[in-house]
């Protein structure tokens, strides 16, 4: 596809393409967001006609294809052989051969099954990083619209190079890291990269050089999606040099931490190996000194080795873990690797994402200020059905009703009740406003039909408001929705239940500040009846409006999460919030959930820069809420906790969470709204995306830990009473171990807990 003309933005007309020479030098610091557009164009030697085809081809030779680095696949045979490096596994392998020679076939079956299960688990674990990289690679879009030689082309995104001018439109996915040069109401969903819960308005002005990724409004990053508007941008990074490529590199190079269970098994294996070798050697040497033949003493030494090796224990432990996996699955926690079951029981810290895990991942109108009164709506239904309490409030207040009505008439989203749920389309904030209208028994479809649209002005980040003109029975009316301070400047009157009064700017400002301090997103609403022939009012900025009210929105906490966090605290588990969202929002939600008592005690990512390892450990020890953190910083927080002796479980759903999910002892991904990247990097997947499910999983993990202790103790007794061989009888004791005690109630002592390492005792 080729189209003449392209985009001729002012900045491009000033920066003509430089003569062909060596490829433009790309600064290593990558702070394109802080550079003026003209400077970016000059450094990358681009202009209004984009790059020439010849220059683009030459740069591709220098920078390579716009793809994430391919993960070289290790041959399956090599991966399989790696699983037999453990001393205990080697001893079991020798025992397997010996019992076959002795024709103890039942023992051989059980030992062989244990070896096979161990190999399967190990191979699966090693292949996980490769699958994660492949999932990341799938996020690079296959096609891109680019301007070259003054014409607009659609090309394979792999052919993009630094200096290319890319065209973005609503619905498109960003193909590379771009420094934006033109933005017309451009909004980009960066939630997978930053954790930001709502689309971000983009512009072209430089931002602070130290700004976090979520605050770089002059950039559009590879893998993010354009939700509305259009724009253009210069490619500043491709392939592994993009932010997405940086995350892929972290996932590739950060090693998977061994779980406490694996540490214990490794230590036990070494102990058994030493005991087997020492005992067999001592017996062999003693027999020779007593005059026995070499052949007889060799057989005695082998028999002794087989007797010492607890070949039934690995099978019993595997079955115990499998039972734990089944129990967790019934509680919506899908465990992808068996050792993770026991590790959950050892967890001392849970680092949780906010959006979708601690909260419902849907914007909801929580409070409305109208007519000088504040209305609190904690029960706005998500199924679109009306709420009697909200209907009564609307009927009682004209100002409240007009505030909700204005929200419907300045709204481009849509909501449709279907099978007990709402089918939605559009910006999450606008969907929330329509959901409140449904709860107030104001059907948006009916309301819009009764108020015929004459003209519409969509929301523009530069203007910070949207507006529409509607025809009604008594004439045309202008409705406006936008930022409180912006709408307030347009108002001269304020609506009360008794009618319009002079506008009280201080009252509106105070109400808006109180809402914002609580972590709520605030929008203002106003209207004005138009004179005849005034339909062109949208050609200029609205004035002389009547202020209706404020709507304050937030993503509300999930039901039961606060109680689950209280249970964690009683069980000696500390809960942290680690999010890419704003500090004010994070602090407010953390206070509501009981994670912190002070919503202002929030540490932002920019404050973590430059801290030494010890300083970071000290900060993490006394801080419970982290906001605006980058993937590298989230990884650093997890590493600092692990270095302090904690067993860390981390939750996440986005691409930015993948490095931390893979590095933590337990990575927990979201099953419903999480990305494939996060799920591949995690040890456990939550089918319901609910934090309370993690708590239930930890509870099952502690029961499983207790059962493993019982199995190990039973195996020791069994070996004393029955002697070597017959591991099947050891497994038979699992039924009693699995069912022992009241369900969910177990006394658990964890000697690996952080700080004093004195351990703790909980009864769950």
Total beta-strand segments: 29
Poorly predicted segments? 1-26, 718-764
* Highest CATH level, the class of the largest domain: Alpha Beta
Give the name of the CATH architecture of the largest domain: 3-Layer(aba) Sandwich
SS element count, helices: 28
If you consult CATH, what is the topology of the largest domain? Calcium-transporting ATPase, cytoplasmic domain N
Shape label: elongated
Range of helix content: 40-55%
Average pLDDT across residues? Answer: 79
List strands and helices in order, with pairings.
Elements: E1 2-3, H1 10-14, H2 37-43, H3 53-63, H4 76-82, H5 87-101, H6 105-137, E2 143-148, E3 151-156, E4 165-169, E5 177-189, H7 191-194, E6 200-201, E7 219-220, E8 225-237, H8 243-253, H9 260-289, H10 294-308, H11 312-330, E9 333-335, H12 339-345, E10 349-352, E11 364-370, E12 373-376, H13 388-396, H14 398-409, E13 414-418, E14 421-425, H15 428-439, H16 444-450, E15 452-460, E16 465-472, E17 475-482, H17 484-488, E18 491-496, E19 499-502, H18 505-517, E20 521-529, E21 545-554, H19 561-570, E22 574-578, H20 583-593, E23 603-604, H21 605-608, H22 613-622, E24 625-627, H23 631-643, E25 648-652, H24 658-663, E26 666-670, H25 676-681, E27 684-686, H26 691-722, H27 727-732, H28 734-739, E28 747-749, E29 761-763
Parallel strand pairs: 10-22, 10-25, 18-21, 22-24, 23-24, 25-26, 26-27
Antiparallel strand pairs: 1-3, 2-3, 2-4, 4-8, 5-6, 5-7, 5-8, 9-27, 11-12, 11-21, 13-14, 15-16, 16-17, 17-20, 18-19, 20-21, 28-29
């Amino acid at each position: 596809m080729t189209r003449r003309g392209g985009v001729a933005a002012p900045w491009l007309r000033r920066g003509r393409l430089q003569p062909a020479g060596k490829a433009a030098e790309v600064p290593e610091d990558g702070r394109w967001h802080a550079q003026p557009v003209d400077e970016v164009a000059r450094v990358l030697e681009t202009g209004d006609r984009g790059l020439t085809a010849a220059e683009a081809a030459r740069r591709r030779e220098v920078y390579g294809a716009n793809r994430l680095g391919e993960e070289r696949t290790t041959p399956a045979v090599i991966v399989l052989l790696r699983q037999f490096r453990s001393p205990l596994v080697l001893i079991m392998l020798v025992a397997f051969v010996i019992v076959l020679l002795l024709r103890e076939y039942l023992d051989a079956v059980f030992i062989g099954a244990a070896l096979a299960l161990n190999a399967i688990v190990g191979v699966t674990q090693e292949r996980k990083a490769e699958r994660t990289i492949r999932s990341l690679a799938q996020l690079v879009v296959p096609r891109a619209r680019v301007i070259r030689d003054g014409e607009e082309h659609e090309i394979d995104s792999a052919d993009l190079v630094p200096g290319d001018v890319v065209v973005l439109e609503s619905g498109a996915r960003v193909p590379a890291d771009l420094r934006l040069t033109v933005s017309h109401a451009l909004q980009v969903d960066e939630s997978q990269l930053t954790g930001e819960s709502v689309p971000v308005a983009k512009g072209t002005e430089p931002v602070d050089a130290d700004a976090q990724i979520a605050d770089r409004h002059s950039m559009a990053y590879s893998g993010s999606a354009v939700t509305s508007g259009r724009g253009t941008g210069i490619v500043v990074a491709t392939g592994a040099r993009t932010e997405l490529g940086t995350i892929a590199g972290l996932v590739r190079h950060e090693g998977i931490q061994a779980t406490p269970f694996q540490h214990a098994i490794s230590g036990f294996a070494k102990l058994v190996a030493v005991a087997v070798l020492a005992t067999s050697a001592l017996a062999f040497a003693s027999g020779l000194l007593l005059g026995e033949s070499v052949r007889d003493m060799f057989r005695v030494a082998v028999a002794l080795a087989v007797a010492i090796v607890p070949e039934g224990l690995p099978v019993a432990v595997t079955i115990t873990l499998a039972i734990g996996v089944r129990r967790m699955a019934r509680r919506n926690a899908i465990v992808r690797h068996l050792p993770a079951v026991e590790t959950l029981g050892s967890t001392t810290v849970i680092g949780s994402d906010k959006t979708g895990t601690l909260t419902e991942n849907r914007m909801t109108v929580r409070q409305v200020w109208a007519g000088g009164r504040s209305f609190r709506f904690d029960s706005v239904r998500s199924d679109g059905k009306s709420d009697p309490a909200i209907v009564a409030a609307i009927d009682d207040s004209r100002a409240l009703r007009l505030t909700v009505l204005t929200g419907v008439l300045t709204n481009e989203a849509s909501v449709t009740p279907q099978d007990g749920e709402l089918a939605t389309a559009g910006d999450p904030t606008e969907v929330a406003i329509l959901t409140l209208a449904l709860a107030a028994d104001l059907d948006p479809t009916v309301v819009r039909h009764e108020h015929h649209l004459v003209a519409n002005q969509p929301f523009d980040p530069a203007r910070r408001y949207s507006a529409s003109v509607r025809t009604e029975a008594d004439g045309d009316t202008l409705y406006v929705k936008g930022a409180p301070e912006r709408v307030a400047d347009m108002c001269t009157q304020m609506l009360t239940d008794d009618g319009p009064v002079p506008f009280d700017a201080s009252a509106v400002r105070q109400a808006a500040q109180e809402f914002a301090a609580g972590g709520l997103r605030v929008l203002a609403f106003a209207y004005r009846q138009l004179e005849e022939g005034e339909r062109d009012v949208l050609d200029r900025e609205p004035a002389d409006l009547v202020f209706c009210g404020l709507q304050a929105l937030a993503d509300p906490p999930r039901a039961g999460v606060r109680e689950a966090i209280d249970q964690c605290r009683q069980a000696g588990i500390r809960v942290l919030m680690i999010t890419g969202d704003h500090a004010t929002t994070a602090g407010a939600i953390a206070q509501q959930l009981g994670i912190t008592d002070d919503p202002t005690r929030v540490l932002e990512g920019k404050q973590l820069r430059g801290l030494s390892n010890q300083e970071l450990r000290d900060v993490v020890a006394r801080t419970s809420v982290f906001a605006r953190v980058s993937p590298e910083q989230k990884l650093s927080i997890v590493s600092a906790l692990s270095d302090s002796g904690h067993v860390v479980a981390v939750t996440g759903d986005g691409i930015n969470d993948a490095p931390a999910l893979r590095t933590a002892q337990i990575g927990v991904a979201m099953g419903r709204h999480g990305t494939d990247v996060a799920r591949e990097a995690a040890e456990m997947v939550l089918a319901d995306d609910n934090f309370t499910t993690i708590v239930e999983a930890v509870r099952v993990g502690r029961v499983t830990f207790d059962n493993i202790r019982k199995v190990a103790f039973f195996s020791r007794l069994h070996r004393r009473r029955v002697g070597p061989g017959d591991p099947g009888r050891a497994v038979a004791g699992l039924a009693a171990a699995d069912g022992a005690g009241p369900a969910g109630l177990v006394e658990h002592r964890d000697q690996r807990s952080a700080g004093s390492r004195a351990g703790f005792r909980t009864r769950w």
